[in-house]
Amino acid sequence: MARNFILSILFHAIVVAVAYFGLPSFRDSVILEPLPLSVELVTVADVTNLPTKPKEPEPTP
Question: pTM of the predicted model, to two decimals?
């Protein structure tokens, strides 16, 4: 029973050490900052109001 207790303590110590120090592969050494994005603000009416297409008459049979 003492062997299992020692193994449990050792395993928990390893888990705590990994959680505290972290794994090197989980770290991202390069911090990427978001690039600025330029946008143009326009009135919706200028973009969405298209001229209406004249209706074509239906062909007579």
Answer: 0.38
